[in-house]
């Protein structure tokens, strides 16, 4: 285990050190201490390494992650794992706005709650939130899966494309063109896999599935009131 | 006044200045379809522009340089504030961002070829980076847009600069829409969306709001790319003084300022014509902001929106910018709206020079399309050559003017080299009305 103390190490050095770890590195395990809410911690990683961040982080922790397994032992500020490509990001605490925004791949697990716009414009990422999510989550979400064990706030899945949304609790309201859909066997399989990988104690059958009605996919003036 | 057959004078029929034929036609079209007009291009209305400025040239108090003999430099370096690897360009004219999806692959390749041959950069657009343009662009600026279509860290690292797009001149405050008919398999795959559906490009970034957030976003981009790449911030011509100030505060290396004549692939006509300021009106406030911050020339200013000639380039630089960017003009150089396709423009209900339905994918010139048959009309090698020729002509023209003003670098052009032809242009540009020392709005003037 390599330890980097952010109390005495500049952000640039932290990230350049982690970014330098590629597929053949022997130094697989890293620990970052004293992040103290720093922004852009462990961003742009591109190697199969495990990074444990002990403490809470500011904006964009694990941004654009590829391959790395990043575990935040604390809470995360806005935009955690934004535009993630692959790998895993686990947050023991809560996540602020835009968690997993525009993510293309990988798995984001939030063991606490996530604030508004969780999974906004997601493009293939899988997100599992053990707690609740805020309003406008999965806005314009394109693909991937958002799983919520708790409740969802207003306007879930507004202007949704092809992302799948699974919510176990209540949904305060659905956004434009987002509807409840049948839970088919393949969806239960997807959920089962995601719940297992996210360490979530829940049964797939307890969830409802939401997705796009696909009525706004091509502009029609008769739908103008929906915009 | 005419007379009827009985010899009684009659009132001549007169069409109103307010309800013109085009206005009435648009009312009828809206009534018939129930939808606003969407088109490409920039503002078509006449606004004060660079034609309303003139250079004074040399005189007893200014020595000219000898044309073709004495050197007039055109090199420009962008990104000197923070970037480890600033972009060095041979000419102060860059190619503006235009998306793959909106433009064909061969068109993007032609832009890359032409820009590289002329020693300048080209820019991606909404939709990600294509191999055609990366492969053929010596210097490529990668746009970071609200939609984040195709955004990935590998492309971020293989670009030469990153342009965070906050707005564009044709539609400050607006997003975009790529209609389903242009969503080919390849475009759909790059954007991770189903084929054939309308693809909305958001107007706001999904993970930051305001200049404080933007500063952190830029920090993240720099950390991902090792602080190597210049970070541009592109804004539409809305509030140029404050937007420039906030862009600098957020950490921009370069501010790209796009006036209302700047083109777009597609948006509402009402947006294009009624939102934003003319390019001419945006430059001096932006320069003033940089000067007030002590950042003029340290943060470079790139201006776009209606740049057509070396004279326009010289005027923009004289007003204090470091470079210009062209989009519509580059497309025209490739062959857009060429009269050779007049018969086909007629079939589409338009005429060469007026064709602006770039979003419909039926471009006879084969530029704004994903139709393989139409695309094949543009030879990227020949198109690149035309663009390169055009860029070189613009540069020669700017040099000609600079020499006539006694400048050995186009950046040495200054507002004192200019006069304005109209009161409006004088007020907007801050240079005196021709034949006077009067600048409307300036302290001490009336």
The strand count of chain B comes to 18
Structural class of chain B: alpha/beta
Q: Describe the strand arrangement of the main beta sheet of chain B, using strand numbers.
A: 7-17-16-14-13-10-9-8
Question: Which outline of chain A best applies?
Answer: elongated
Find the CATH superfamily of chain A.
Glutamate synthase, alpha subunit, C-terminal domain
CATH superfamily of the largest domain in chain B: Aldolase class I
Question: How many individual domains of chain B?
Answer: 2
Q: At the third CATH level, what is the topology name of the largest domain in chain B?
A: TIM Barrel
Identify low-pLDDT runs of chain B. none
User: Measured on Cα atoms, how large is the radius of gyration of chain B?
Assistant: 23 Å
Order of helices and strands of chain A: EHEEEEEEEEEHE
Q: How many helix segments of chain A?
A: 2
Average pLDDT number of chain B:
94
How many beta-strand segments of chain A? 11
What is the end-to-end distance of chain A?
Answer: 52 Å
Q: Give the count of helical stretches of chain B.
A: 15
Helix proportion of chain B: 25-40%
Summarize the structure.
The complex is a heterodimer of chains A (227) and B (446). By secondary structure, chain A is mainly beta. Chain A is built from two helices and eleven strands.
Set down the secondary structure blueprint.
The complex is a heterodimer of chains A (227) and B (446).
Chain A: E1 2-5, H1 11-19, E2 29-33, E3 50-54, E4 69-73, E5 88-91, E6 107-110, E7 123-129, E8 143-148, E9 164-167, E10 178-181, H2 185-197, E11 208-212
Parallel strand pairs in A: 1-2, 2-3, 3-4, 4-5, 5-6, 6-7, 7-8, 8-9
Antiparallel strand pairs in A: 9-11, 10-11
Chain B: E1 2-3, E2 9-10, H1 21-33, E3 38-41, E4 53-55, E5 76-78, E6 87-89, E7 93-95, H2 105-118, E8 122-123, H3 131-136, E9 140-144, H4 153-158, E10 161-165, E11 176-178, H5 185-191, E12 199-201, H6 210-224, E13 231-236, H7 240-250, E14 254-258, E15 264-268, H8 269-274, H9 279-292, E16 300-304, H10 310-318, E17 323-326, H11 328-334, H12 342-347, H13 372-375, H14 380-404, E18 418-420, H15 423-429
Parallel strand pairs in B: 7-17, 8-9, 9-10, 10-13, 13-14, 14-16, 16-17
Antiparallel strand pairs in B: 1-2, 3-15, 4-18, 5-6, 11-12
Helix pairs in contact in B: 2-14, 6-7, 7-9, 9-15, 10-14, 11-14
């Amino acid at each position: 285990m390599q330890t980097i103390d952010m109390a005495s190490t500049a952000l640039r050095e932290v990230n350049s050190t982690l970014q330098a770890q590629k597929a053949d590195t022997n130094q697989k395990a890293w620990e970052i201490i004293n992040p103290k809410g720093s922004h852009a911690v462990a961003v742009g990683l591109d190697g199969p390494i495990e990074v444990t961040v002990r403490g809470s982080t500011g904006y964009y922790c694990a941004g654009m992650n590829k391959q790395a397994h990043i575990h935040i032992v604390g809470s995360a500020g806005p935009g955690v794992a934004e535009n993630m490509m692959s790998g895993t990001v686990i947050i023991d605490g809560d996540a602020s706005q835009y968690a997993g925004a525009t993510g293309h791949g990988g798995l984001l697990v939030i063991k606490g709650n996530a604030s508004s716009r969780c999974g906004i414009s997601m493009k293939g990422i899988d997100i599992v939130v053990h707690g609740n999510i805020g309003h406008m989550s999965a806005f314009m979400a394109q693909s991937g899966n958002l799983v919520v064990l708790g409740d969802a706030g207003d306007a879930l899945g507004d202007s949704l494309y092809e992302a799948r949304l699974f919510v176990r609790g209540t949904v305060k309201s659905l956004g434009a063109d987002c509807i409840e859909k049948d839970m088919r066997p393949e969806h239960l399989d997807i959920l089962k896999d995601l719940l297992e990988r996210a360490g979530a104690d829940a049964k797939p059958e307890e969830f409802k599935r939401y997705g796009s009605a696909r009525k706004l996919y091509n502009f029609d003036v008769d739908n103008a009131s929906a915009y | 006044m005419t007379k009827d057959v009985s010899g009684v004078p009659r009132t001549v029929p007169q069409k109103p200045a307010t309800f013109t034929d085009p206005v009435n036609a648009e009312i009828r079209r809206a009534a018939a379809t129930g939808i606003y007009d969407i088109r490409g291009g920039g503002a078509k209305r006449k606004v004060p522009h660079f034609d309303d400025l003139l250079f004074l040239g040399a005189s007893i108090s200014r020595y000219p340089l000898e044309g073709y003999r004495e050197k007039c430099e055109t090199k420009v370096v962008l990104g000197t504030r923070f970037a480890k690897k600033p972009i060095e360009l041979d000419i102060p004219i860059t190619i503006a961002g235009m998306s793959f999806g909106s433009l064909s692959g061969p068109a993007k390749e032609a832009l890359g070829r032409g820009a590289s041959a002329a020693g300048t950069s080209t820019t991606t657009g909404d939709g990600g980076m294509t191999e055609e343009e990366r492969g053929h662009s010596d210097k490529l600026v990668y746009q970071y847009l609200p939609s984040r279509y195709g955004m990935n860290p590998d492309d971020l690292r293989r670009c030469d600069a990153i342009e965070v797009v906050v707005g564009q001149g044709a539609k400050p405050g607006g997003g975009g829409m790529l209609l389903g008919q242009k969503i080919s398999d390849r475009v759909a795959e790059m954007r991770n969306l189903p084929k054939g559906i309308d693809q909305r490009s958001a107007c706001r970034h999904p993970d930051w709001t305001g200049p404080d957030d933007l500063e952190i976003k830029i920090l993240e981009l720099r950390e991902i790319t090792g602080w190597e790449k210049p970070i541009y911030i592109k804004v539409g011509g809305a509030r140029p003084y404050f937007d420039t100030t906030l862009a600098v505060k957020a950490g921009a290396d370069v501010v790209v300022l796009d006036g209302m004549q700047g083109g777009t692939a597609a948006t509402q006509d009402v947006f294009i014509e009624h939102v934003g300021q003319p390019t001419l009106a945006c430059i001096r406030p932006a320069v003033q902001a940089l000067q007030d911050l002590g950042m003029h020339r340290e943060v470079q200013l790139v201006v776009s929106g209606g740049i057509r000639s070396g004279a326009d380039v010289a005027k923009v630089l004289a007003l204090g910018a470091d470079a210009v960017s062209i989009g519509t003009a580059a497309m025209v150089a490739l062959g857009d709206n060429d009269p050779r396709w007049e018969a086909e423009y007629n079939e589409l209900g338009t005429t060469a020079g007026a064709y602006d339905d770039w979003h419909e994918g039926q471009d006879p010139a084969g530029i704004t399309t994903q139709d393989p048959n139409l695309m094949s009309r543009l030879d990227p090698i020949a198109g690149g050559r035309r663009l390169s020729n055009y860029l070189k002509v613009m540069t020669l023209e700017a040099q000609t003017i600079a020499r006539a003003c006694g400048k050995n670098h186009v950046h040495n052009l200054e507002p004192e080299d200019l006069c304005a032809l109209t009161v409006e242009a004088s007020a907007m540009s801050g240079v005196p009305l021709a034949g006077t020392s009067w600048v409307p709005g300036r302290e001490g003037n009336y």
